[in-house]
Amino acid sequence: MIKVGIIGATGYGGGELVRLLAFHPAAKVTAVTSRSYIGKAYSEVFENFRHHEELMLQEEHIESMARDCDVLFLTLPHGVASGKITEYVLQKTRVIDFGADFRISDADVYEKWYGVSHAGRELLPRAVYGLSEIYREKIISARLVANPGCYTTAGILALYPLLKEGVIDPDSIIIDAKSGVSGAGRGLDLGVHYDEANESVKAYKIGSHRHVPEMEEQLSLAANRPIVLSFTPHLIPMNRGILLTAYATLNDKKAAYDDIYAVYEKYYKNEFFIRITKKGASPETKWVKASNFCDIGFTPDTRTGRVIVISALDNLVKGAAGQAVQNMNLMFGLEESAGLDMMPVFPA
Amino acid sequence: MIKVGIIGATGYGGGELVRLLAFHPAAKVTAVTSRSYIGKAYSEVFENFRHHEELMLQEEHIESMARDCDVLFLTLPHGVASGKITEYVLQKTRVIDFGADFRISDADVYEKWYGVSHAGRELLPRAVYGLSEIYREKIISARLVANPGCYTTAGILALYPLLKEGVIDPDSIIIDAKSGVSGAGRGLDLGVHYDEANESVKAYKIGSHRHVPEMEEQLSLAANRPIVLSFTPHLIPMNRGILLTAYATLNDKKAAYDDIYAVYEKYYKNEFFIRITKKGASPETKWVKASNFCDIGFTPDTRTGRVIVISALDNLVKGAAGQAVQNMNLMFGLEESAGLDMMPVFPA
Amino acid sequence: MIKVGIIGATGYGGGELVRLLAFHPAAKVTAVTSRSYIGKAYSEVFENFRHHEELMLQEEHIESMARDCDVLFLTLPHGVASGKITEYVLQKTRVIDFGADFRISDADVYEKWYGVSHAGRELLPRAVYGLSEIYREKIISARLVANPGCYTTAGILALYPLLKEGVIDPDSIIIDAKSGVSGAGRGLDLGVHYDEANESVKAYKIGSHRHVPEMEEQLSLAANRPIVLSFTPHLIPMNRGILLTAYATLNDKKAAYDDIYAVYEKYYKNEFFIRITKKGASPETKWVKASNFCDIGFTPDTRTGRVIVISALDNLVKGAAGQAVQNMNLMFGLEESAGLDMMPVFPA
Amino acid sequence: MIKVGIIGATGYGGGELVRLLAFHPAAKVTAVTSRSYIGKAYSEVFENFRHHEELMLQEEHIESMARDCDVLFLTLPHGVASGKITEYVLQKTRVIDFGADFRISDADVYEKWYGVSHAGRELLPRAVYGLSEIYREKIISARLVANPGCYTTAGILALYPLLKEGVIDPDSIIIDAKSGVSGAGRGLDLGVHYDEANESVKAYKIGSHRHVPEMEEQLSLAANRPIVLSFTPHLIPMNRGILLTAYATLNDKKAAYDDIYAVYEKYYKNEFFIRITKKGASPETKWVKASNFCDIGFTPDTRTGRVIVISALDNLVKGAAGQAVQNMNLMFGLEESAGLDMMPVFPA
Q: Which of A127, A128, A144, A125 is closest to A136 using CA atoms?
């Protein structure tokens, strides 16, 4: 069994990772760390794990954990992971980082958007961007994987084939995303206090969300030219799920549904975790809940010459922990869907 | 007291109208009709009205109601009102129609988008589009007011000044809207069954929603040239509220916040029901709930050369019944805010 | 106009009080205080108040406020108000306290349940328990009113007539209550973090909630003998509203619905804010939302010889701010429903 | 592999059964029937099943299905299953009935509470009540299992040990339950229309819910004397989960927590799916969501001499489909937790 350590295991992403790995056929969580709950049973922090999980939360010692574990998952605040991951750590173990420190190849861009200095620039070239469907081959041999952001996963999977095949104008991309509240984490804040978030909707970080440079880098690679895009995330009153609505101008304004469908098929027809919705249907977050699926639908609109692409995923699974497990599976030569082979839960 | 008749009073829009008029200083509901609940007390259909409202639901007789009432509000399915409103009715009373039949000046456009034939083409020239802030003068003397749609109110108020003043490129408009479930009405349907709509989000009628031609007509008038726009409505799990996010390319890509603010001030600074959010803040539906306010915020984005405008309103108030009362006030020479002078309810 | 000061105005109860008083015909809020937001506009703390309310939050000086205001409302943590309210304050102004310090006549009982010492024992005899429907006469002449708790209002109104008339066995009372999350206030806490409270239900403070001694004292007075009761509050995923289900053994196990109805009528038939539901109907919190109503329904069950009484109210209105305004109206000789004459908002 | 047929597979209970069986190590769904969706792909009715499940919905032919399947699950309206299950069917296959027809041993009691005549009285003696933890031995050899109701499972598991051991007074039982909306099924009804159920709570079928006789029969067997109890179900605004709060008078009014704990341990210490919460903790539905767990907590209250017992389960899993799979496992000699070995999903 692959021995797994989780550094920062008491957030929602960490909890979901433990849930997914609990029945993984080839991996086992052997160490979980926390800053606030050291010495406490993990099942006291997340009572859903009672009768299953007997882990105790321990203090973080990344070097000894690197020696003891085959892979470490890090869920740490921005700027922290880059100071902790060292050559020594990467010699001893593999690392999958949930944070943003190694997602953006240009440390200057990272520092500008995140407002912190990057403490591990020398390791950046070794990091592989962990979007399994796109970087599968590189992930297989990676020691350090930067697990993508939740919005970015939804955005890149939605648009990658269209840019790759020149279907849309790279200058025209507008992305409007809607996220459930768990994306904001388990930390207390007035904006996610129950009565403040319930029965309301708002946009936030308009044009300035940190997932922008990540999407722009990846989509620029797809288009083979620099892309600047508009991105507006919204907070909506539900626990889980992201629905992302992308707008772009079609290069062929009369492009037919079937032609665009063929483009998606070219890239995704063998991707188990990507489901293109049937013509006339449209993704809904309820159909992917608690699963690693990303559903994608699209509508060409001849009136406006635009295509509207919609993607839906569970921000804690395909947008975080599920993606990470998928990457782990690739890194260890396992079946890519090992431990992820579960149905979405509906209604939930 | 102005005598008010409501035809089709048992939907959510009708209920909200009764609530708003209950304490109106100069108007009183004297007749409410229904197809399904004839003879039943109104406060049995909406138990919130117990101890306040003693109306009985009666059968609909538009001509006798026209004789007895000073104004009739109609909340009927599309295509029905245009067959009921006659010259005779308009001679005897004033009419405020919640439906779409008289919102679009070109009956052919109406028929194409609504898929029904228009039964009252000859009355179309007499109808005034009831967006109070824009058509105030015409509404004052109107006999027939077409009360705007909920999305359209949010969309037009958000973009009207920018188009009027040439701030944005009319060909670049993309509108992404998020609505609470009450917009779908009180009729049963699997899509609004509790467990289907709760904890999920979806887009619907992508590019084909019937509020498109209504927005296009009004915004074309503002721009003084034809506009074709993209519009995607989304259903989100909450009872009330619409948040609308509009994207448009700035003609001056370096336009400053304050310059755009001045444009909004020019049009709205004396509008009590329109609140421009402070710089750095952004509208949230919770701040307008149960009120007639429409909050508007905007963010110019020099990276992309676009402006993102966000508007928030309560779909049952400024998006329906409140707007209708505002129009009634104008038609009868009352204080425009009469009966609408209430604070948003928070948290609710 | 009655000049109103609010000490501790930035919680949900304070906000609701400002909302209700905004259109009160005979009172006006002239001062609002806060510990955290001194110098800030009130409408920045609660943006729903923009365009209506121009108050600034000031530091608390109870004595000068007592001189300047005709009435002070206090919404402070338990144990704080009793140290602030002095003879001097009560000479200069009237006080309505939202907290529990003056609700329980026996300071020893208070200290036992609340775990703090009572700093104003000498004033206890001057405090009147502010349940308007029951203590109307005393409230009229009171200088210090202890505004009841939210659960207790629902519980006392449900059972008072039955105990007063000897309909039920005082030893058999079990109260199971369900509250929306706003009852927990605006303070941050993991239990009311959005994802923790949403889509879940739990009981809390089982048998030990501080509203127990308050209900027991009032119901003992009704029964004219000591009462000990079981009370279990539950937190349910919604913003507002309390539904309380009370169980008691009927002294006449075959008591008919109409006989019990007559008992309620005897006490409540002239009470505008209490609505007895029709036979066959049952209270739902949605029918009282944002209003001062308390709906009550009951079901005698001949199988078990018990009666089940259900009451519903809005915890921020009849359970807090609305009740307080009702008390103020009584204290100042105003129409009891002044400023409270609004319909419940549905759906909301 | 055990071949499974599901008659009535398009409700929420049927959907959950398909979800649970999808990865069952020893069973496979081979036939699903429907009245409304014959010929449609199952994954079009429940889109969460896309990429996993390729079943087509077929017409119902219970006899041929009995020949083809090793076990049939029936989710049919009350009164229907008893007319369909015949000796022939039971010879050919095993049956697990989600409905109530075979839950109550006395057909007269059934007919009185359900208001329909029982069409299969002769088979009643062969039916085993499918509460696995209590009737394990009988279920192993059963041909016909009556799967318990959702409320009844929560109620019986909460009180069974206390009655069996004489800890509580059988005449004093009051049960107050709170259920998410999925318990009402996927059929359209105004009461479960989104805006009617959201942000509100109500009691329903007070004292007359059909789960009463089922709980009374089972708890009478535990107490070895007839029990009449009070039961009030409530509908709360969430998708899944039941929290049940039971009140009973302690025979020893000073009974200590640890003594009662020992009673629960005696019955449940080896039950994987029953988790007794730690002292000071209390069940919450979020900790059992999407799992087969039933969490139980209790609080002895020496003030009142009562014990308050709280149980939480997922109404679609331990309250329906999970329980059914657990029974199937017993009937086929499998590991009891086969296919049910999943963690609760949190937050969800």
A: A128
The DSSP secondary structure of C40-56, one letter per residue, reads SBHHHHSGGGTTT---B
Neighbours of chain B (3+ CB pairs under 8 A): A, C, D
Contacts of residue D230, Cβ cutoff 8 Å, sequence gap at least 6: C247, C301, C304, C306, C308, D173, D174, D175, D207
The residue type at B273: F
- Distance in angstroms between the alpha carbons of the first and the last residue of chain A: 32
Q: Which residues of chain B have pLDDT under 50?
A: none
Nearest-10 Cα torsion for D208, D210, D213, D214: -150
For chain C, say whether A117 makes contact (Cβ under 8 Å).
Answer: no
Contact D51 A275 (CB under 8 A): yes
Q: Quick one: pLDDT at residue B170?
A: 98
Catalogue the E-assigned strands of chain B: 2-7, 27-33, 57-58, 71-74, 94-97, 127-129, 144-146, 174-179, 202-203, 230-235, 242-249, 274-276, 294-301, 306-313
Tell me how far the alpha carbon of residue C31 is from its chain's centroid. Answer: 23
Give the per-residue pLDDT at D178. Answer: 98
Six-digit token string for C101: 């310090």
Handedness of CA B77, B83, B87, B88 (dihedral sign): negative
Q: C198 vs A239: CB contact, 8 Å cut-off?
A: yes
Non-local (6+) Cβ contacts of A238 within 8 A are A180, A181, A285, B198, B199, B200, B201, B236, B237, C198
- Which pLDDT value is given to residue A53? 83
Q: Which residues of B touch C199 (CB under 8 A)?
A: 199
Q: Which two tokens stand for residue C335?
A: 């129409």
Do residues A180 and A154 touch, judged by C-beta distance below 8 A?
no
Q: Which CATH superfamily is domain A2-148+317-331 in?
A: NAD(P)-binding Rossmann-like Domain (3.40.50.720)
- Whole-number Å distance between alpha carbons of D132 and D338: 14
D154 touches chain A (CB under 8 A): no
Q: Where in chain A is the domain with CATH 3.30.360.10?
A: 151-313
0.95 surpassed by complex ipTM: yes
- Mean pLDDT of the region A205-224: 98
A194 touches chain C (CB under 8 A): yes
Instruction: List CB contacts of A148: < 8 A, sequence separation 6 or more.
Output: A103, A129, A130, A131, A156, A214, A323
Task: Judge whether D343 is closer than 8 Å to chain B, CB to CB.
Answer: no
Is pLDDT of D53 > 90?
A: no
What's the gap in Å between the CA of D94 and the closest CA on chain C? 36
Report CA D228 to chain centroid distance, whole Å.
21
Tokens 């009590």 locate to B272
Taking the domain B151-313, which CATH number applies? 3.30.360.10
The CATH 3.40.50.720 domain(s) of chain C lie at 2-148+317-331
Catalytic residue among A150, A229, A260, A331: A150
Tokens of D344: 């609760």
Q: Is C247 on the interface with B (CB under 8 A)?
A: no
For chain D positions 32-91, those within 8 Å of chain A (CB to CB) are 46-53
Min Cα distance D122 → chain C (Å) is 29
Q: Verify whether the Cβ–Cβ distance A48 to D22 is below 8 Å.
A: no
CA pair distance D348, D346, nearest whole angstrom: 5
pLDDT > 90: percent of chain B: 99
